[in-house]
Amino acid sequence: MTRGSQIHSFGRFLYTQNPFYLISCFLILYGLQTATVSAGDLISRSLSLSGGIAAYTLLMAVTCVAVIRICQVWQDARSIFLVVIISLVALSTSLDELAITQWNSATQILCVGFLFAVLISESVIRATRIRFPFAYRGSYYSLLLIFFASPIVLGYAVVHRHDELANWGAPLYSVLIAAGMLLLAPAMRKGRRRVRHNGTPWHWPYYPLSAFVILVVLAAIRTHAIWMSFGFRGSSVRFEPFLLLPIAFAILVLLAEIDAKRVLPRFAWGTMAAAPLMLFCGLSHHGKTYLPIQSDLQFVFGSASTVTLLALVLFYLYLAVRRVTYVEYGLIGSIVTMGVFAELPQTVYAAGVQNWMIVALGAIICSAVCLRVWRSDVGWFAVVVLSTLTIVMAGNAYDHTLAGLILAAVVAVMSMMLIGAVFESEFAMLLRHLAAGIIVIMVGSMVAWYLSGRADRRVLLGLITLSIVAVIYLQIVRRIGWLYIAAAPAFGLCLLLAWDGHQAGIFRKSNVPLQSGLTCFAIGLAITTMKTGVHRKLLRSTIQANALPRYKPGL
């Protein structure tokens, strides 16, 4: 692209989009703030700043009406609409200092300011003959009310030393903003049908969601300012992402509502995939916050990361209620993640709830999903993983770590063998091989544990059980490899019995060379039969005699 064409394209962008109204807004707001810094006492500065913003807002509102009714330049009018909204929000944030020092005066100005915001908004809507449905209008005025009412309520808390309300001010403000946003949910479900004939050339979602995007961005910025103005108590100034959690939750819900009931809900699936990003709101400072409510938050919820995990679970539950397909996987994953990583508060621990119970809940939900989709071998394996994790965590919680590990290993092996017997997929075959390998490792571990002198004779019973289970499984899956797996615990049992006999002195008076020779003969004979395949022939003849199907090779 040549330099001339680049200049032409840039000029075309300036002409069509006309960003100078937005640039003018930010420059004028900054200029008004700078000009009123030295304008006498605090009440004079506050009146000058709020009055200047109100005058500029009125100017832009009149300009907006003229641009639409006289000039019919709708592209520029959209920018002017956004400037009016930004100015109204700036008007609500210009009196924080006055709300702390002279609360009565700030309250009067803010109340008048809210009435002014409603009057300006309604005047522009009616004068331009734009249809602004109540489904959007209710959320719009609710957000404006929160902007103007927050300094009044929190200023009162600071003036009258309601420190708990002042400290919780920023989180409560964020929650209220999220609640105001969620009033858009019915409108988001109807989508463009709700504003199809709106009296403008603008199309959904640019109209009217662009206005709400501006409000949400300003509200997110305002959360930090609320904390600094009304909840700050001399601690270091740091950005606190935890305050953005309710707003992020509301955004995800609204995006999911766009197509939650469709057969292919792409927006809902996208929000389901993006929802774990909410966890970043609770990962700062090792799951804690820099807010003055940290101690209360830890007492009620455990930590900020616990709150974010709970929000993630609630979001997936909401999608489940809306019957979004595949949400059960996100729900199970979020519940298990909460059970593994969440720091539960002491009040919950006192009630008997522990982390392993949350993981167990995830395993139960996963089992219910697998019962609905019966032929899912991967799903049943997920149930196995969650069940073994639950057993390990429960054993660790009740100071029976070793018993929990042993029981988890037994459950895992038996479950994988069961899945391998029921299904004929490659994954089921992999689980059979994995179960066989674990059995061999368990046999070696049990033998070593017994020889070390730290185990009792229950190990012998375990080896017998493993051998019997492998033989029974051989008859179920008809795989010759399980004959060798059954031989492993049998060989370990013989080894331990011989060790016990040697330790007891039974073999000390015997002819050791003779016994050793017979043992070597037995080993050599076993190797020879393996080479010649005699055991296979004997097994095949037994099968034919009993009219049973032929055993398959491998595991």
Automatic annotation (TrEMBL):
Provenance organism:
Rhodopirellula maiorica SM1
The UniProt keywords, alphabetically, are:
Membrane, Transmembrane, Transmembrane helix
Q: What is this protein called?
A: Membrane protein
Where, if anywhere, are coiled coils annotated?
none
Where on the tree of life does the source sit, at the highest rank? Bacteria
Positions of transmembrane segments:
20-40, 46-68, 80-100, 106-128, 140-159, 165-185, 206-230, 242-260, 267-287, 299-319, 326-342, 348-371, 378-398, 404-423, 430-451, 457-474, 481-499, 511-530
